[in-house]
Amino acid sequence: MRKFWQWKNQKENQESNEILERTLFLNGTIAEESWFDDDITPQLFKDELNAGSGNITVWINSPGGDCVAAAQIYNMLMDYKGCVTVKIDGIAASAASVIAMAGTKVYMSPVSMLMI
Fold first, then answer.
1. What are the pLDDT digits (tens) for 46-90?
2. Residue 31 backbone phi and psi in degrees, to 5
3. φ/ψ of residue 38, rounded to 5
4. 81 secondary structure, DSSP code
5. In whole angstroms, what is the distance from residue 5 CA to residue 60 CA?
6. 41, 76, 93, 115: which one has the fewest Cβ atoms less than 10 Å from its Cβ?
């Protein structure tokens, strides 16, 4: 399965090597294959999510995709201990709009679209 997400570390504690702030980019179709009977991919996302601590900024530009994958990502982000800020810079449609609702704060560009 091709990953539709990418992590980028923004701030790191030099003394402890702890990641303090990260950015998650969700671009394109959410899970081109269903996560319904896939145990590996959701676990990979969860492992990457929990690999750091601190706040996360999620950038979304997606037409949507698999509703099972979106529901799992939403739940994982809601359970995350740090602050989750969502920024929609293009489109967050269908399944991607579900993920967008996991943000503590949700920001949209004036030219972006949120389609439920």
1. 999 998 889 999 999 999 998 988 999 999 999 999 999 999 999
2. 55, 95
3. -105, 120
4. S
5. 10
6. 115
Q: Tell me the C-alpha distance between 79 and 110, whole Å.
A: 29
Nearest alpha carbon to residue 59 among 20, 112, 19: 112
Is 29 in contact with 65 (CB distance < 8 Å)?
Answer: yes
Q: What's the pLDDT tens digit per position in 95-108? A: 999 999 999 999 99
Q: Domain span at residue 89?
A: 5-115
DSSP string, 16-67: T--EEEEEEEEESSB-SS-STT-SHHHHHHHHHHTTS-SEEEEEEEE--B-H
Neighbouring-strand partners of residue 55: 21
Number of domains in the chain: 1
Predicted TM-score of the model (pTM): 0.86
Q: Identify the CATH number of the domain in which residue 51 sits.
A: 3.90.226.10
